[in-house]
Amino acid sequence: MKVLMLALNREKFPDPVFPLGASYIAGALSKAGHIVDVFDACFLENPQIELENFLKGKSYDSIGVSIRNVDNNSFPIAENYLNYYKSMVDICRKYSKAPITLGGSGFSIFPELYMKELGADYGIKGEGEYAFLELLKKIETGDPPTEKLFYSETIKDINFDTFPDRKGFDIDKYYKYSGCINIQTKRGCAYNCSYCTYPVLEGRSYRFRSAKNVVDEIEFWNKSKGIDYIFFVDNVFNHPENYALEICNEIIRRKLKIKWTGFFTPTLSDNEFIGKCLESGLTSADFGTDAFSPETLKGYNKSFTVEDIFRSCEICKERGIKFNHSLIFGGPNETMDTLKETLANVELTAPTSVIGFIGVRLYAGTQIAETFKDLDIGITPVFYISEAVRDEILDYLAEYVKDKRNWIIPGLEKGTNLSLINRIRNKGVKGPLWELLVNLK
Ligand code: B12
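# cobalamin complex -> structure
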Protein backbone atom coordinates (compact mmCIF):
# COMPACT_ATOMS: atom_id res chain seq x y z
CA MET A 1 0.00 0.00 0.00
CA LYS A 2 1.03 3.59 -0.44
CA VAL A 3 1.06 5.16 3.01
CA LEU A 4 1.64 8.76 4.06
CA MET A 5 3.13 9.29 7.53
CA LEU A 6 2.47 12.71 8.97
CA ALA A 7 4.70 13.91 11.83
CA LEU A 8 2.85 16.92 13.19
CA ASN A 9 5.03 18.10 16.07
CA ARG A 10 6.27 21.67 15.63
CA GLU A 11 7.45 22.45 19.17
CA LYS A 12 11.00 23.83 19.10
CA PHE A 13 11.63 24.16 22.83
CA PRO A 14 14.00 23.02 24.26
CA ASP A 15 14.92 21.67 20.81
CA PRO A 16 13.13 20.46 17.69
CA VAL A 17 12.87 16.76 18.48
CA PHE A 18 13.42 14.23 15.72
CA PRO A 19 10.11 12.30 15.24
CA LEU A 20 11.40 8.99 16.53
CA GLY A 21 7.97 7.37 16.96
CA ALA A 22 6.92 8.20 13.39
CA SER A 23 10.23 6.85 12.08
CA TYR A 24 9.76 3.58 13.99
CA ILE A 25 6.39 3.21 12.26
CA ALA A 26 7.84 4.17 8.86
CA GLY A 27 10.53 1.50 9.37
CA ALA A 28 7.99 -1.21 10.21
CA LEU A 29 5.82 -0.33 7.20
CA SER A 30 8.71 -0.20 4.70
CA LYS A 31 10.03 -3.51 5.98
CA ALA A 32 6.60 -5.07 5.36
CA GLY A 33 6.70 -3.85 1.75
CA HIS A 34 4.56 -0.72 1.95
CA ILE A 35 5.65 2.42 0.14
CA VAL A 36 5.99 5.16 2.73
CA ASP A 37 6.05 8.90 2.11
CA VAL A 38 6.71 11.29 4.97
CA PHE A 39 5.33 14.75 5.64
CA ASP A 40 7.12 16.38 8.55
CA ALA A 41 5.65 19.69 9.71
CA CYS A 42 8.38 20.60 12.20
CA PHE A 43 10.39 23.15 10.24
CA LEU A 44 7.69 24.38 7.83
CA GLU A 45 6.71 28.04 7.77
CA ASN A 46 3.08 27.38 6.98
CA PRO A 47 2.26 23.71 7.52
CA GLN A 48 -1.37 23.93 6.40
CA ILE A 49 -0.57 25.45 3.01
CA GLU A 50 2.39 23.13 2.52
CA LEU A 51 0.27 20.08 3.35
CA GLU A 52 -2.39 21.17 0.84
CA ASN A 53 0.26 21.59 -1.85
CA PHE A 54 1.85 18.28 -0.92
CA LEU A 55 -1.41 16.36 -1.17
CA LYS A 56 -2.63 17.90 -4.43
CA GLY A 57 -2.19 15.42 -7.26
CA LYS A 58 -1.08 12.60 -4.95
CA SER A 59 -3.00 9.56 -3.94
CA TYR A 60 -2.54 7.41 -0.83
CA ASP A 61 -4.17 4.23 0.40
CA SER A 62 -3.71 5.16 4.02
CA ILE A 63 -2.55 8.07 6.16
CA GLY A 64 -0.90 7.72 9.59
CA VAL A 65 -0.74 10.76 11.83
CA SER A 66 1.78 10.96 14.66
CA ILE A 67 0.77 13.18 17.59
CA ARG A 68 3.66 13.51 20.05
CA ASN A 69 2.68 16.36 22.36
CA VAL A 70 -0.71 17.27 23.78
CA ASP A 71 0.52 20.63 24.98
CA ASN A 72 3.71 22.34 26.12
CA ASN A 73 3.12 21.41 29.77
CA SER A 74 3.94 24.95 30.87
CA PHE A 75 1.70 26.65 33.40
CA PRO A 76 0.62 29.49 33.24
CA ILE A 77 1.27 29.77 29.48
CA ALA A 78 0.09 26.31 28.49
CA GLU A 79 -0.34 25.92 24.76
CA ASN A 80 -2.82 23.32 23.58
CA TYR A 81 -1.96 22.01 20.08
CA LEU A 82 -5.42 20.57 19.38
CA ASN A 83 -6.67 23.21 16.92
CA TYR A 84 -3.51 22.90 14.88
CA TYR A 85 -3.82 19.09 14.77
CA LYS A 86 -7.45 19.45 13.73
CA SER A 87 -6.56 21.81 10.91
CA MET A 88 -4.04 19.30 9.56
CA VAL A 89 -6.37 16.30 9.78
CA ASP A 90 -9.11 18.34 8.08
CA ILE A 91 -6.75 19.08 5.17
CA CYS A 92 -6.01 15.34 4.81
CA ARG A 93 -9.76 14.73 4.63
CA LYS A 94 -10.25 17.44 2.05
CA TYR A 95 -7.52 16.29 -0.32
CA SER A 96 -7.47 12.53 0.22
CA LYS A 97 -9.95 9.69 0.52
CA ALA A 98 -7.44 7.54 2.40
CA PRO A 99 -8.43 6.33 5.87
CA ILE A 100 -6.69 8.33 8.60
CA THR A 101 -5.11 6.60 11.62
CA LEU A 102 -3.90 8.49 14.68
CA GLY A 103 -1.09 7.42 17.02
CA GLY A 104 1.76 8.76 19.14
CA SER A 105 2.41 9.53 22.80
CA GLY A 106 0.13 12.57 22.93
CA PHE A 107 -2.66 10.67 21.23
CA SER A 108 -2.15 7.68 23.56
CA ILE A 109 -2.74 9.77 26.69
CA PHE A 110 -6.21 10.87 25.51
CA PRO A 111 -7.12 8.43 22.69
CA GLU A 112 -10.90 8.60 23.02
CA LEU A 113 -10.93 12.40 23.21
CA TYR A 114 -8.64 12.80 20.21
CA MET A 115 -10.75 10.37 18.18
CA LYS A 116 -13.79 12.49 18.91
CA GLU A 117 -12.10 15.83 18.34
CA LEU A 118 -10.21 14.95 15.18
CA GLY A 119 -12.81 12.69 13.60
CA ALA A 120 -10.22 10.18 12.38
CA ASP A 121 -11.10 6.77 10.98
CA TYR A 122 -8.85 4.82 13.32
CA GLY A 123 -6.59 5.30 16.28
CA ILE A 124 -3.94 3.11 17.87
CA LYS A 125 -3.12 3.69 21.52
CA GLY A 126 0.40 2.60 22.39
CA GLU A 127 3.16 1.07 20.31
CA GLY A 128 2.20 1.12 16.65
CA GLU A 129 4.67 -1.08 14.79
CA TYR A 130 2.58 -4.26 14.61
CA ALA A 131 -0.87 -2.82 15.33
CA PHE A 132 -0.71 -0.43 12.38
CA LEU A 133 0.45 -3.22 10.06
CA GLU A 134 -2.44 -5.41 11.19
CA LEU A 135 -4.87 -2.59 10.53
CA LEU A 136 -3.43 -1.94 7.07
CA LYS A 137 -3.74 -5.63 6.25
CA LYS A 138 -7.44 -5.54 7.09
CA ILE A 139 -7.98 -2.39 5.06
CA GLU A 140 -6.05 -3.87 2.12
CA THR A 141 -8.11 -7.05 2.01
CA GLY A 142 -11.26 -4.99 1.68
CA ASP A 143 -12.45 -5.98 5.12
CA PRO A 144 -11.85 -2.83 7.19
CA PRO A 145 -12.58 -3.28 10.90
CA THR A 146 -15.73 -1.80 12.35
CA GLU A 147 -14.05 -0.76 15.59
CA LYS A 148 -12.12 2.50 15.37
CA LEU A 149 -9.83 2.54 18.37
CA PHE A 150 -7.26 -0.18 19.05
CA TYR A 151 -5.35 -0.66 22.29
CA SER A 152 -2.01 -2.05 21.22
CA GLU A 153 -0.30 -4.52 23.53
CA THR A 154 3.25 -3.70 24.54
CA ILE A 155 5.67 -5.36 22.12
CA LYS A 156 7.74 -8.01 23.91
CA ASP A 157 10.72 -8.14 21.58
CA ILE A 158 11.79 -4.67 20.51
CA ASN A 159 14.89 -5.86 18.62
CA PHE A 160 13.23 -5.08 15.31
CA ASP A 161 15.08 -6.27 12.24
CA THR A 162 15.13 -2.71 10.91
CA PHE A 163 16.09 0.52 12.62
CA PRO A 164 13.69 3.46 12.74
CA ASP A 165 13.48 4.65 9.13
CA ARG A 166 14.71 8.25 9.26
CA LYS A 167 15.33 8.80 5.59
CA GLY A 168 12.11 10.68 4.82
CA PHE A 169 13.02 13.22 7.50
CA ASP A 170 15.61 15.98 7.37
CA ILE A 171 18.11 14.27 9.66
CA ASP A 172 20.82 16.88 9.01
CA LYS A 173 18.58 19.73 10.04
CA TYR A 174 17.44 17.89 13.16
CA TYR A 175 21.03 17.10 14.06
CA LYS A 176 21.98 20.73 13.61
CA TYR A 177 19.06 22.21 15.56
CA SER A 178 18.59 19.58 18.27
CA GLY A 179 22.30 18.88 18.61
CA CYS A 180 21.82 15.13 18.87
CA ILE A 181 20.31 12.03 17.40
CA ASN A 182 17.75 10.24 19.59
CA ILE A 183 18.08 6.55 20.37
CA GLN A 184 15.83 4.33 22.47
CA THR A 185 17.47 1.41 24.29
CA LYS A 186 14.44 0.03 26.12
CA ARG A 187 10.72 0.56 26.66
CA GLY A 188 8.81 0.63 29.92
CA CYS A 189 9.08 2.38 33.26
CA ALA A 190 9.12 0.47 36.55
CA TYR A 191 8.62 3.56 38.73
CA ASN A 192 5.36 4.75 40.25
CA CYS A 193 5.63 8.55 40.20
CA SER A 194 2.17 9.77 41.00
CA TYR A 195 1.81 12.29 38.16
CA CYS A 196 3.64 10.50 35.39
CA THR A 197 2.40 9.12 32.09
CA TYR A 198 5.41 6.91 31.31
CA PRO A 199 3.96 3.65 32.65
CA VAL A 200 0.66 4.52 30.95
CA LEU A 201 2.47 4.87 27.62
CA GLU A 202 5.03 2.11 27.81
CA GLY A 203 3.86 -0.25 30.58
CA ARG A 204 5.68 -1.05 33.81
CA SER A 205 7.87 -3.91 32.75
CA TYR A 206 11.03 -3.30 30.79
CA ARG A 207 11.66 -4.60 27.32
CA PHE A 208 15.27 -4.28 26.24
CA ARG A 209 17.03 -4.05 22.93
CA SER A 210 20.25 -6.00 22.92
CA ALA A 211 23.31 -3.83 23.46
CA LYS A 212 24.50 -4.96 20.04
CA ASN A 213 21.29 -3.80 18.37
CA VAL A 214 21.42 -0.40 20.10
CA VAL A 215 25.08 0.23 19.36
CA ASP A 216 24.72 -0.98 15.76
CA GLU A 217 22.24 1.87 15.30
CA ILE A 218 24.58 4.38 16.97
CA GLU A 219 27.53 3.14 14.92
CA PHE A 220 25.52 3.37 11.71
CA TRP A 221 24.82 7.08 12.26
CA ASN A 222 28.31 7.74 13.54
CA LYS A 223 29.99 6.12 10.54
CA SER A 224 27.55 7.26 7.84
CA LYS A 225 27.02 10.86 8.92
CA GLY A 226 29.60 11.56 11.58
CA ILE A 227 26.86 12.00 14.19
CA ASP A 228 28.58 11.90 17.55
CA TYR A 229 26.06 13.15 20.11
CA ILE A 230 23.37 10.76 21.33
CA PHE A 231 20.28 11.50 23.42
CA PHE A 232 19.04 8.29 25.02
CA VAL A 233 15.29 8.83 25.19
CA ASP A 234 14.61 6.05 27.74
CA ASN A 235 12.34 7.25 30.53
CA VAL A 236 15.19 6.55 32.97
CA PHE A 237 18.51 5.58 31.39
CA ASN A 238 20.27 4.32 34.53
CA HIS A 239 17.58 1.86 35.60
CA PRO A 240 18.17 -1.02 35.65
CA GLU A 241 21.84 -0.24 36.03
CA ASN A 242 23.19 -3.60 34.85
CA TYR A 243 21.47 -3.19 31.49
CA ALA A 244 22.66 0.42 31.07
CA LEU A 245 26.15 -0.85 31.86
CA GLU A 246 25.91 -3.29 28.93
CA ILE A 247 25.18 -0.38 26.59
CA CYS A 248 28.19 1.56 27.90
CA ASN A 249 30.45 -1.48 27.62
CA GLU A 250 29.43 -2.11 24.02
CA ILE A 251 30.15 1.53 23.06
CA ILE A 252 33.56 1.23 24.73
CA ARG A 253 34.32 -2.15 23.12
CA ARG A 254 33.73 -0.66 19.67
CA LYS A 255 35.85 2.39 20.51
CA LEU A 256 33.14 4.74 19.30
CA LYS A 257 34.01 8.38 19.79
CA ILE A 258 30.62 9.68 20.84
CA LYS A 259 29.12 11.81 23.57
CA TRP A 260 25.78 11.10 25.15
CA THR A 261 23.19 12.25 27.68
CA GLY A 262 19.88 11.00 29.06
CA PHE A 263 17.40 11.05 31.93
CA PHE A 264 18.79 9.72 35.20
CA THR A 265 17.21 8.82 38.50
CA PRO A 266 19.36 10.38 41.25
CA THR A 267 20.41 7.13 42.85
CA LEU A 268 24.02 7.03 41.71
CA SER A 269 26.80 5.32 43.56
CA ASP A 270 30.46 5.88 42.87
CA ASN A 271 30.82 2.51 41.20
CA GLU A 272 31.97 0.78 38.04
CA PHE A 273 28.80 1.91 36.24
CA ILE A 274 29.44 5.62 36.56
CA GLY A 275 33.04 5.10 35.42
CA LYS A 276 31.83 3.23 32.34
CA CYS A 277 29.25 5.94 31.64
CA LEU A 278 32.06 8.46 31.47
CA GLU A 279 34.36 6.21 29.46
CA SER A 280 31.60 5.64 26.89
CA GLY A 281 30.95 9.37 26.45
CA LEU A 282 28.48 10.58 29.10
CA THR A 283 28.67 14.37 29.31
CA SER A 284 25.63 15.19 31.42
CA ALA A 285 22.84 13.66 33.47
CA ASP A 286 19.34 15.10 33.53
CA PHE A 287 18.02 14.13 36.97
CA GLY A 288 14.28 13.60 37.34
CA THR A 289 14.59 15.08 40.81
CA ASP A 290 11.10 16.66 40.77
CA ALA A 291 11.40 17.95 44.36
CA PHE A 292 14.03 18.22 47.05
CA SER A 293 12.09 17.99 50.29
CA PRO A 294 10.95 14.74 51.90
CA GLU A 295 7.26 15.74 51.95
CA THR A 296 7.02 16.67 48.26
CA LEU A 297 9.09 13.67 47.18
CA LYS A 298 6.47 11.62 49.01
CA GLY A 299 3.67 13.53 47.29
CA TYR A 300 5.12 12.56 43.92
CA ASN A 301 5.70 9.01 45.18
CA LYS A 302 9.36 9.20 44.27
CA SER A 303 11.50 6.18 45.01
CA PHE A 304 14.55 8.07 46.29
CA THR A 305 15.40 10.33 49.21
CA VAL A 306 16.87 13.78 49.68
CA GLU A 307 20.14 12.05 50.71
CA ASP A 308 20.18 10.09 47.43
CA ILE A 309 19.95 13.33 45.47
CA PHE A 310 22.77 14.96 47.43
CA ARG A 311 24.98 11.91 46.98
CA SER A 312 24.28 11.67 43.23
CA CYS A 313 25.14 15.35 42.73
CA GLU A 314 28.38 14.93 44.72
CA ILE A 315 29.39 12.04 42.48
CA CYS A 316 28.69 14.11 39.38
CA LYS A 317 30.80 16.97 40.70
CA GLU A 318 33.68 14.68 41.67
CA ARG A 319 33.57 13.00 38.27
CA GLY A 320 33.07 16.15 36.17
CA ILE A 321 29.59 15.24 34.96
CA LYS A 322 27.29 18.18 34.28
CA PHE A 323 23.84 17.75 35.78
CA ASN A 324 20.41 19.30 35.60
CA HIS A 325 17.60 19.05 38.12
CA SER A 326 14.20 18.76 36.45
CA LEU A 327 11.72 19.99 39.02
CA ILE A 328 7.96 20.28 39.41
CA PHE A 329 6.94 23.00 41.85
CA GLY A 330 3.62 23.05 43.68
CA GLY A 331 2.68 19.36 43.67
CA PRO A 332 0.93 17.36 46.39
CA ASN A 333 2.13 18.22 49.93
CA GLU A 334 3.87 21.40 48.74
CA THR A 335 3.82 24.29 51.21
CA MET A 336 5.85 27.47 51.06
CA ASP A 337 8.23 25.79 53.53
CA THR A 338 8.78 22.71 51.36
CA LEU A 339 9.18 24.92 48.30
CA LYS A 340 11.86 26.96 50.05
CA GLU A 341 13.52 23.75 51.26
CA THR A 342 13.63 22.45 47.67
CA LEU A 343 15.13 25.69 46.38
CA ALA A 344 17.74 25.81 49.15
CA ASN A 345 18.75 22.17 48.67
CA VAL A 346 19.01 22.62 44.92
CA GLU A 347 21.38 25.54 45.44
CA LEU A 348 23.49 23.46 47.84
CA THR A 349 24.17 20.99 45.03
CA ALA A 350 25.43 23.79 42.69
CA PRO A 351 23.85 22.21 39.61
CA THR A 352 24.80 23.02 36.04
CA SER A 353 21.20 24.03 35.52
CA VAL A 354 17.64 23.67 36.74
CA ILE A 355 14.54 23.23 34.60
CA GLY A 356 11.39 23.91 36.59
CA PHE A 357 7.74 23.37 35.77
CA ILE A 358 5.02 24.99 37.82
CA GLY A 359 2.11 22.77 38.83
CA VAL A 360 1.36 19.21 37.81
CA ARG A 361 -0.30 18.85 34.42
CA LEU A 362 -3.00 16.25 35.04
CA TYR A 363 -3.06 13.39 32.54
CA ALA A 364 -5.52 10.52 32.24
CA GLY A 365 -4.41 7.20 33.70
CA THR A 366 -1.96 8.63 36.24
CA GLN A 367 -2.28 8.04 40.00
CA ILE A 368 -2.83 11.71 40.72
CA ALA A 369 -5.59 11.93 38.11
CA GLU A 370 -7.48 9.25 40.05
CA THR A 371 -7.46 11.56 43.08
CA PHE A 372 -8.96 14.44 41.10
CA LYS A 373 -11.68 12.60 39.25
CA ASP A 374 -14.04 15.54 39.68
CA LEU A 375 -11.79 17.77 37.54
CA ASP A 376 -12.26 17.86 33.80
CA ILE A 377 -8.96 16.18 32.90
CA GLY A 378 -8.53 16.18 29.14
CA ILE A 379 -6.79 17.70 26.16
CA THR A 380 -7.31 21.21 27.50
CA PRO A 381 -4.53 21.52 30.07
CA VAL A 382 -5.52 21.39 33.75
CA PHE A 383 -2.79 21.84 36.38
CA TYR A 384 -2.83 20.81 40.01
CA ILE A 385 -1.19 23.30 42.35
CA SER A 386 -1.24 22.63 46.08
CA GLU A 387 -3.64 24.98 47.83
CA ALA A 388 -0.98 26.04 50.33
CA VAL A 389 1.11 27.71 47.61
CA ARG A 390 -1.47 28.51 44.92
CA ASP A 391 -1.70 32.24 45.55
CA GLU A 392 1.99 32.90 46.02
CA ILE A 393 3.95 30.47 43.88
CA LEU A 394 4.15 32.41 40.61
CA ASP A 395 5.30 35.69 42.13
CA TYR A 396 7.63 33.95 44.52
CA LEU A 397 9.37 31.92 41.82
CA ALA A 398 9.53 34.83 39.39
CA GLU A 399 11.36 36.88 42.01
CA TYR A 400 13.54 33.96 43.07
CA VAL A 401 14.85 33.07 39.60
CA LYS A 402 15.13 36.64 38.34
CA ASP A 403 18.93 36.78 38.48
CA LYS A 404 19.70 33.10 38.15
CA ARG A 405 21.06 32.51 34.70
CA ASN A 406 21.17 28.74 34.99
CA TRP A 407 17.47 28.38 35.84
CA ILE A 408 15.04 27.62 33.02
CA ILE A 409 11.36 28.04 33.84
CA PRO A 410 9.28 27.57 30.65
CA GLY A 411 6.08 28.80 32.35
CA LEU A 412 7.78 32.10 33.17
CA GLU A 413 9.40 32.24 29.72
CA LYS A 414 12.78 32.16 31.40
CA GLY A 415 15.51 30.54 29.33
CA THR A 416 13.20 29.83 26.40
CA ASN A 417 14.40 32.40 23.86
CA LEU A 418 14.22 30.48 20.58
CA SER A 419 16.21 32.94 18.50
CA LEU A 420 19.07 32.73 21.00
CA ILE A 421 18.80 28.92 20.95
CA ASN A 422 18.97 28.99 17.13
CA ARG A 423 22.00 31.25 17.15
CA ILE A 424 23.83 28.84 19.45
CA ARG A 425 22.89 25.84 17.29
CA ASN A 426 24.01 27.71 14.17
CA LYS A 427 27.47 27.73 15.71
CA GLY A 428 27.41 23.93 15.68
CA VAL A 429 26.92 23.39 19.41
CA LYS A 430 25.80 19.84 20.24
CA GLY A 431 24.14 18.31 23.29
CA PRO A 432 21.43 19.82 25.52
CA LEU A 433 21.95 23.57 25.78
CA TRP A 434 21.52 23.53 29.55
CA GLU A 435 24.99 21.96 29.61
CA LEU A 436 26.38 25.40 28.75
CA LEU A 437 24.75 27.32 31.53
CA VAL A 438 27.45 27.18 34.18
CA ASN A 439 30.80 25.59 34.53
CA LEU A 440 31.27 22.99 37.20
CA LYS A 441 32.51 24.39 40.46
C1 B12 B 1 12.86 11.79 25.53
C2 B12 B 1 11.72 12.77 25.75
C3 B12 B 1 12.00 14.13 25.62
C4 B12 B 1 13.36 14.68 25.19
C5 B12 B 1 13.54 14.44 23.68
C6 B12 B 1 14.99 14.33 23.27
C7 B12 B 1 15.13 13.93 21.82
N1 B12 B 1 16.02 14.59 21.13
O1 B12 B 1 14.46 13.03 21.37
C8 B12 B 1 13.22 16.19 25.56
C9 B12 B 1 13.83 16.45 26.94
C10 B12 B 1 13.86 17.19 24.58
C11 B12 B 1 11.72 16.35 25.66
C12 B12 B 1 11.09 17.56 25.60
C13 B12 B 1 9.71 17.73 25.68
N2 B12 B 1 8.81 16.83 26.02
CO1 B12 B 1 9.23 14.94 26.14
N3 B12 B 1 9.46 13.09 26.32
C14 B12 B 1 10.44 12.28 26.09
C15 B12 B 1 10.04 10.81 26.37
C16 B12 B 1 10.63 10.38 27.71
C17 B12 B 1 10.42 9.78 25.30
C18 B12 B 1 10.00 10.17 23.87
C19 B12 B 1 10.49 9.14 22.88
O2 B12 B 1 11.39 9.39 22.10
N4 B12 B 1 9.91 7.92 22.89
C20 B12 B 1 10.29 6.83 22.00
C21 B12 B 1 9.37 6.75 20.75
C22 B12 B 1 9.78 5.59 19.88
O3 B12 B 1 8.05 6.54 21.22
P1 B12 B 1 6.76 7.32 20.65
O4 B12 B 1 7.16 8.60 20.06
O5 B12 B 1 5.74 7.35 21.72
O6 B12 B 1 6.26 6.38 19.46
C23 B12 B 1 5.61 5.14 19.67
C24 B12 B 1 4.09 5.25 19.86
O7 B12 B 1 3.65 6.48 20.37
C25 B12 B 1 3.50 4.94 18.50
N5 B12 B 1 3.36 5.98 17.49
C26 B12 B 1 4.04 7.14 17.32
N6 B12 B 1 3.59 7.78 16.23
C27 B12 B 1 2.64 7.04 15.67
C28 B12 B 1 1.86 7.22 14.54
C29 B12 B 1 0.92 6.26 14.18
C30 B12 B 1 0.07 6.44 12.97
C31 B12 B 1 0.75 5.10 14.98
C32 B12 B 1 -0.25 4.07 14.63
C33 B12 B 1 1.53 4.92 16.14
C34 B12 B 1 2.47 5.88 16.47
O8 B12 B 1 4.42 3.97 18.02
C35 B12 B 1 5.76 4.39 18.35
C36 B12 B 1 6.67 3.21 18.43
O9 B12 B 1 6.16 2.23 19.28
C37 B12 B 1 8.47 10.95 26.43
C38 B12 B 1 7.77 10.00 27.40
C39 B12 B 1 7.43 8.72 26.71
N7 B12 B 1 7.77 7.63 27.32
O10 B12 B 1 6.86 8.71 25.63
C40 B12 B 1 8.26 12.42 26.79
C41 B12 B 1 7.04 13.13 26.22
C42 B12 B 1 6.91 12.73 24.76
N8 B12 B 1 7.40 14.55 26.32
C43 B12 B 1 6.39 15.30 26.56
C44 B12 B 1 6.46 16.73 26.66
C45 B12 B 1 5.22 17.44 27.17
C46 B12 B 1 7.62 17.43 26.33
C47 B12 B 1 7.82 18.96 26.30
C48 B12 B 1 6.65 19.77 25.75
C49 B12 B 1 8.16 19.43 27.72
C50 B12 B 1 8.70 20.84 27.79
N9 B12 B 1 7.83 21.83 27.91
O11 B12 B 1 9.88 21.01 27.73
C51 B12 B 1 9.08 19.07 25.40
C52 B12 B 1 8.71 19.18 23.93
C53 B12 B 1 9.89 19.02 23.02
C54 B12 B 1 9.53 19.06 21.56
N10 B12 B 1 10.30 19.79 20.78
O12 B12 B 1 8.55 18.46 21.15
C55 B12 B 1 5.13 14.51 26.73
C56 B12 B 1 4.22 14.60 25.45
C57 B12 B 1 2.77 14.38 25.72
C58 B12 B 1 2.20 15.54 26.47
N11 B12 B 1 2.10 15.35 27.75
O13 B12 B 1 1.91 16.53 25.91
C59 B12 B 1 5.69 13.07 27.00
C60 B12 B 1 4.81 11.91 26.56
C61 B12 B 1 5.92 12.98 28.53
C62 B12 B 1 4.73 13.41 29.33
N12 B12 B 1 4.87 14.39 30.17
O14 B12 B 1 3.66 12.89 29.24
N13 B12 B 1 11.10 15.15 25.77
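# post-check
Residues 178-439 form a domain with the TIM Barrel fold (CATH 3.20.20.70).
The longest helix spans residues 211-225.
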